Each structure stands twice: as structure tokens, then as C-alpha cells.
Amino acid sequence: MTDLGRRGLLMGSAAAIWGWPGRDQFRMFDPAQADRFQLSLPSVLPDESAFFASHFLEHLPAIPYVHCPSICTTPNGGMLCVWYAGSGEGKKDVQIWGADASVLGSDISWGPPRVLMSRQKAMRDLDRFVRTVGNAIVFPDDQGRVWLVFVTVAVGGWSGSSLNACCSLDGGATWQPSRRLSLSPLMNMSELVRAAPVSLESGNVGIPMYHEAIRKFPEMLWMRFDRGRLKVTKTRMCGGDEFLQPAIVPMDGSHALAYLRDGSAAHQVFVQQTNDCGQAWSVPVPLSLPNPNSSVAAVRLSTGEVLMAMNNSSTNRENMTLIISPNGIDHWNSISILDGEPKGKYAYPYLISSPGGRVDLVYTWQMQKIRHVAFNEAWVTAQPRKSLL
What we know:
By secondary structure, the chain is mainly beta. The protein has a single domain, classed as Neuraminidase. Helices cover 8% and strands 46% of the residues. The protein has three helices and 27 strands. It has helices at 3-19, 119-126, 377-382, and strands spanning 52-57, 65-73, 79-86, 95-104, 107-110, 114-117, 132-140, 146-153, 161-168, 179-180, 191-193, 198-199, 205-213, 215-226, 229-236, 243-250, 256-262, 268-274, 285-290, 297-300, 306-310, 319-325, 333-340, 346-353, 358-365, 369-376, 386-387. Strands 2, 3, 4, 5 and 6 form a five-stranded antiparallel sheet that branches.
């Protein structure tokens, strides 16, 4: 056997071992000392008028492939949206882009896109080879910083990915050098992010992520800030090889739902539940919602209802639909088809709710640009509901 063959066998064996289901691997802390979810519910004013706004974030001149947006509020009251774009997924020219929005009441104004991270900058920061960059999420912490967690790939496809993080002290205008997140003593690869993080009462952050080498399964990345130093670890949400991109919705301080992208023949959204702030999760079960092997996004409203953005199809991504449930499990109703046309490509929704009562949604629009939709709960209430059963 050649050295290259031995190396490939070693990497494959290591990935298979790590991909094997394990219930208690990488537990972050003793369950008796578990943290609590910090609920971020919008403050809804009585008799508030319905509000809805839509914007496109686009490149001029156009870039062929635009995908995977994330959005957050910033300490100055604005917003920051990030995504990646280039000639195609996984290409060397892919860069992570961002755009800033100023917000004054219901008036939202987006600035032009700018590059936040390239493979060249990532290589300088990390002092290691980077073939391409990919999925990125952005979020604020309770210290006034804004964090960017992003994927780099050194070799192969997404199965060869690593996670990295950098922070901004000025609302996303400038960024500190990136560092690679050490999440496993074995290879430390094939970890990706996609969905919005959850805040904890301690100030720590839980980030849903997923593993995608040999086997596919959801995980949690826990970020802790200890005397100014970032510490990270991860926990497994379930085993298996079909579930990706968990989207987590805290329902109270300890209970949360996790909606899973389904790569199996079932073509349904699956859900897990935790009752101890993510220490342990139930076995995934299917919901009566179709899923064309695509990610979903969801938030809890002040009413206790769960609002979800998803592709209402088991076979394609030709629509982006908002649906709502009283408990996040059943009795789902469609309230709005935001986009829909034959052969359309609307994907990777990302939802957040702001303390001011606004809900912000971004998603990939035809793989050409990012669409941002903003609305309040009064608008949600005013929409006619159509049962999905």
C-alpha cells in the first residue's frame, strides 16, 4: 500500500469512528449545573399597525453564485447580514460577504456588499492552507461584540471542513484575526454551521452545527467566555446519517425544539426536544411537514406560537413559505408564500426576532442574491391561515 493509500485509510477509519453514534460524547458540563436558555421575545405593542418590508441584497456587477445568508442585530441598533458568493459552491474564488443596514423605526436601509473574509485572509489569520471558505453565521454576544463563525475547507468537499471564529468590537466594521476552533482531538474536521445560535443566561452561546463525513448528524457547539478567552466544546444531538442543519427554538428556560433537515427517503421535517437546556435530546421524529432535503428556520413569537420559514415541498425548493403552529409540533398553517415559481430556487432561510418586535428573515433568492423580509407580529396575525393537513 502506498503512503497516500495508508493516509486515506487512516483518515477514513478516523472519520468512521467519529461518525459512529455516541450519546454522551463531549458533554460540556455536569447536568446538575446546566445553564438556561435566555428567551428573546419581541415586545409587542397593543394595537400596533401591521408592518412588512422587503429588500434585495445584490452584487453589482453580479456574481454567479450567492448563497447561505445569516443576519443579526448590531450594538448600534442596525443589522448585519453575511453570506458567501463566488463562481460556484466550493470554488477558490468564494468569499464571505457582508452588508450593513441602518434601522430607524420601520425604515431599513441596506448598504452595498463588502468582503468580510476570503481564502487569502483566512490563510493569513489561521497560518494554514485554505482551499475555499463557505457557510458563515453572525451574531452578537452580551459584551457588545459581534461574532463571525465560518467554514474553511483545506482539502476535499464539506467533509473536509473546519470551523473558525473572529469577532468585531465595532459592530462589524472591522474584525479581529480569526482562530480555528478545536472541537475534537481526532482530525477536528467536517463540522459546519448553518442556523441561528441560542443565547444562555450565563452569557454563553449555543450554536447548532452538524457533522458531514461518512455519517451525517446534528451537534451543538458551545461557546464560553472565560476571563476574556474563548473556550469551545461540542455535544452530540443524535446519531445516524440523515439529519443536518438543526434549527433550535427555545420554548422556555430549559425546553427547546430542534428542527432537522432530512436527507432520507421520508422527505419530512424532523424534530427533537430537550428539557435540560441541550444536555440531552430526544430521538428525532417526523412532523407532518414536507422537506426536500433543505434547511428550515424558526422562531418563537410572543404568543408562544412558532413561526417557520421552509420549502413547502418534498421534492424541490421552488417556494419559500411562512407557516405557523401553536406549539411548534402540530396544527401547522401556511400564512404566506413569499416566493414561488416553477424551477425557482429559494433556499436556506434564517430567522431572528428583535426586542423591538420585528422579525427578520433572509434567504437565498434564485442563487443570485439575498432577499431580506422584515415584519412584525401584527402582520403575522393579519395573514389568513390555511391548514397544511
